[in-house]
Amino acid sequence: MNIQLPHSTLQSGKHLLLSGSKSESNRVLILQALFPELTVQNLSTADDTLLLQQALSSHTEVVDIHHAGTAMRFLTAYFAIQQGKEVLLTGSPRMKERPINLLVNALQQLGADITYTEKEGFPPIYIRGKKLINNEIHIQGNVSSQYSSALLLIAPALPNGLTLHLEGEVTSLPYLKMTTNLLAHCIGQEQVLFKANTIKVNTMNGKNLLHNSWEVESDWSSASYWYAFVALSPIGTTLSLSYFKSHSLQGDSALKTIYEFFGVHSSFKGNELTIEKVAEPQQKRFEYNLNATPDIAQTIAVTCVAMGLECHLTGLHTLKIKETDRLQALQTELRKLGADVSTTHDSLHLAPCPHLRSGISIATYNDHRMAMAFTPLMLKTNLEIADKEVVSKSYPSFWHDVAQLTVKR
Q1: Which of 34, 41, 68, 322 is the most exposed place for a label (fewest CB within 10 A)?
Q2: How far apart are CA 66 and CA 50, in angstroms?
Q3: Beta strand extents in 91-182 (DSSP E only)
Q4: Which helix (H) or strand (E) element contains residue 222?
Q5: Other residues' Cβ atoms within 10 Å of the Cβ of residue 86
Q6: Triad 328, 333, 334: Cα angle to 5°
Q7: Is the pLDDT of residue 317 over 90?
Q8: Distance CA 405, CA 18 (A)
Q9: pLDDT tens digits, 219-232
């Protein structure tokens, strides 16, 4: 079902409580499955997290995680060490096009028993859980940090721990640090060593966790859409969001710095984040390397097109293996609005767009971030978002929040 978005205004002075971070929630759920004494508060309500919870408690031989890429990677590693358990791990047609061979190869180096049931290198995969004795592997660091995180999350449960060597440039480093920081919180800082491109995690071998509780911070990726809303609003517009930490584990907290360019200032009072439009951009060209935070690329590109700014984004090579090829999808949909856009395998260039077309229907390609990233354009024109239900993957209450915070002009 599509949703019509009339030309609207963001109401100033409102407050939103956002759901827990999907990235944090999915990591801590794997740790909780390995160490049941761990208690967790403020879990994400996103589809991806619910699917992971269901999969972890499932007693069936076939586990279908649909479009949940993080769940596919994390569960591949988790099921590989569940001795005596055999699982066919599968997903949607798009999931079957997303490569998993680097992770499977790494697990096989540790001794895992995993076979492909359809196309070599891609899901579905058949996993026969066993005890993994080997404890040292090499993996490319420039493809997806989720592969490395999947391996690190099971490391404390391996009989000999794990030493992980990352080869080449490391993509999405903040997400990798989120994983190691969560591990350090649970098992102790001295049990997790991250030096240069090598990460060593010691085994717990039946020892108790150092800390057995975790409160998940709200999701900075979800907050990105509200940064865009405020950026496209008049000077003086404010919006408060919670529950957020000034020193966050989430890479997308870089929004605080990035959106200063667009005139949005961030401030904290306890765990409440207030964002305010304080100025218009002082420069006409925005350039940024998003290698560490690729999930906010769509939001930033849409912000720039709405503000008539030139934009050059790099570090986007992982976007091609997401829910859709996000680079191609961005190019196609931005062009519908009248933008001049060009892309390479890892970059996007947007020329200043002096006028946005109205009444455009934005295709979402089964990608939650396409739907939400384009929504703030409703502050500049009227548009339609196709397949509105897709937002449930990460932010189920998104349309409710949009309706509560905006008024038709």
Answers
A1: 41
A2: 12
A3: 113-116, 125-128, 136-140, 162-167
A4: helix 220-231
A5: 12
A6: 100
A7: no
A8: 13
A9: 999 999 999 999 99
**Does residue 212 lie in a domain region?**
no
Residues 169 and 235 in one domain: no
Query: Which residues does the annotation mark as catalytic?
Result: 295
The single-letter code of the amino acid at 329 is A
What number of other Cβ atoms are within 10 A of residue 1's Cβ?
6
Strands (E), 246-370: 264-269, 272-277, 285-289, 310-314, 341-343, 348-350, 360-362
Residues 314 and 222 in one domain: yes
Which residue segment(s) compose the domain that 333 sits in?
3-19+218-408
Provide the mean pLDDT of the chain: 94
Amino acid in the structure at residue 156: P
CA 186 – CA 99 distance, rounded (Å): 31
Q: Is 70 part of a structural domain of the chain? A: yes
- Inside any domain, residue 208: no
Own/partner long-range contacts of 258-267 (Cβ < 8 Å, ≥24 apart): 258/288, 258/296, 258/300, 259/227, 259/230, 259/231, 261/286, 262/227, 262/231, 262/286, 262/303, 262/307, 263/231, 263/235, 264/227, 264/230, 264/231
Q: Is 172 within 8 Å of 178 (Cβ atoms)?
A: no
- For 156, other C-beta atoms within 10 Å of its C-beta total 24
Helices 145-154 and 173-187 sit at what angle, rounded to 10 degrees? 10
A 10 A CB-CB count for 263 gives 18
Strand order in the sheet with 383-385: 3-5, 383-385, 360-362
Q: Tokens 């939103």: give the residue.
A: 16
The verdict on 55 and 176 lying in the same domain is: yes
User: 343: Cβ–Cβ under 8 A, 6 or more apart, which residues?
Assistant: 327, 328, 330, 331, 349
pLDDT of residue 322: 64
Q: Are 173 and 207 in contact (CB under 8 A)?
A: no
The C-alpha atoms of residue 379 and residue 322 are separated, in whole angstroms, by 28
Number of domains in the chain: 2
> In terms of Cα–Cα distance, which of 288, 294, 302 is closest to 322?
294
CA 370, 247, 169, 104 torsion: positive or negative? negative
Question: 189-226 b/e with 16+ CB inside 10 Å = b?
Answer: eebbebeeeebbbbbbeeeebeeeebebbbbbbbbbbb
Whole-model pTM above 0.70? yes
Tell me which residue has tokens 């490569």. 99
Q: Which is it for the CA torsion 58, 62, 68, 69, positive or negative?
A: positive
What CATH number is given to the structural domain containing 58? Answer: 3.65.10.10
Residue 171 has pLDDT above 90, yes or no: no
